[in-house]
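For reproducibility, we list the full input for the magnesium ion complex.
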Amino acid sequence: MQANLPAAIGFMAEVHQDDARPLEPLFAARGSTARWHERTADRTLHTVLLHSGAPDEAYAREHGRTLLFAGELYNRDELSGLLPGRVLPSSDAALVSALFDGYGVHAFRLLNGRFAALLADRERVVFATDHAGSVPLYACVAPGQVLAATEAKALRGAAARGLPISQGRAVRRRPGTCQVPAGSVLDIQVSTGMCVSHRTWTPPLARRILPEDEAADTVRRALERAVRARTGPHTPLVVLSGGIDSSAVAALAARRSAGPIDTVSMGTDEADEFPQARVVARHLGSAHQEITVPTADLLLGLPHAIWAAECPDPDVIEYLLPLTALYLRLGDTGSDGDTGGDGDTRGNHGTGRRILTGYGADIPLGGMHRESRLPELETAVCHDMDTFDGLNELTPTLSAMAGHWSTHPYWDRDVLDVLVSLEAGLKRRHGRDKWVLRAALHDVLPHEVVVRPKLGVHEGSGTTASFSRLLTDAGIPQDRVRQAKRLVVEEIYDQVVVEGRHPDEVALDAVVELIADRSAHHPCPVPR
Ligand code: ATP
Ligand code: MG
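The corresponding predicted structure, in tokenized form, follows.
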């Protein structure tokens, strides 16, 4: 296994009570493939695991029960303390399986991690997502058959057979498939398809009142721990804009690293934040790289970003597009080749990187909200924390598509609990947004970085502007651009997720032309 990647980055599993033929799954994430088939008196389990070299570490089999685990845990030390006197399980999958022995489905309430899990136990299948739903998990359930996968497109062939299950989130144009909600366990009886759901995490609703120093200190300690838990023995790579969020992560990663860390910034011919990122890289002594992506190439990546994120929301895709472009240019991660072993395996065992981002800090801190009134700030935080689920902003597939593993310290469960719960006056203070974060990091970053106003990744890279121009150049009037972006993203989503087409086969210019044509002939909203 590559020590800097989790054992598995995705899976598909099918439980059948009859002899159905297994599906051939499609994944955007890149990894080696291991397959298992288990037959017992009452059911068959087909499993496809996307792994990084040691599939057994993502697969635990005990007492006739099978657990699949894609992703990783960040509170292994705490969890190990719950198993006194036992030989410590060597993998996250084995650890979760051992906790399941003691706590049943409530084991998932104990986990701080970035994962999706599936447990098949005789007549029962259990799905679990981490608190943030940061590794998406999709399911299709009918009496006698239960299917699940970490990408919706993997279940393409099954959708028509599925029934809606309680608590599942609807998936666009896939009536038989649902998305398992964030912070949830769904416990399903295979023969009937009956589902019992448990929430394992919800965003805090109450707010804590703390003195300034104590608030900053609490944030600092939580973030330090989250960065430490996410950095393995290898040199970490931080995707760095020079904004406070990623600069804070880079600074904390650099403090615990024996040698210089790696940082990388992307820009386009339209815009970049290279000078800002350089200030931070110089201050930290990081090995820094700049990658410039021509705007036309950036936009050609739209189908890849949508293929990976499986999200039809154009605003989210504008945030994710520059990062996708960056991940895809971080270098080849190795060659494909059969590796033998348990089941048939293929894929790469190359040089995938562990990437830390500053993504998502604005959601619990209200950083996108550019005004100073506290009621509006709190309303924005509450709204964003109520609606993040299903947007797949945090999905590892964006980087896994290029063979890398990304992880987001601000969406660590404990960091999030701290950030969300601080009273709004600590988030906006002394005329600054994200004040408490700036105060927490003031001693490890240059002052100009600590006070730098927010610039969104979609703005700093010129993504929003260039996407708009693509549409106005095609004849779409300025006042219809927003709606047209939605239609372009939805059309591409339908091609790559619903129909399962490869993103290289999507003709972006033809999609834009189609939407421009519809827009010219139909007043908003344009019907499909
Ligand atoms: P701020 O929110 O204060 O601007 P930030 O730039 O670090 O801080 P975002 O703008 O929200 O955060 O961007 C989200 C994350 O995406 C960043 O934290 C960083 O990890 C990554 N990112 C954004 N822009 C770039 C860029 N140009 N190059 C590399 N990574 C970037
Ligand atoms: Mg920024």
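The two ends are 46 Å apart (CA to CA). The pocket of magnesium ion (ligand 2) is lined by residues 241, 243, 455-457, 460 (CB under 6 Å). Both points were considered when choosing residues for closer inspection.
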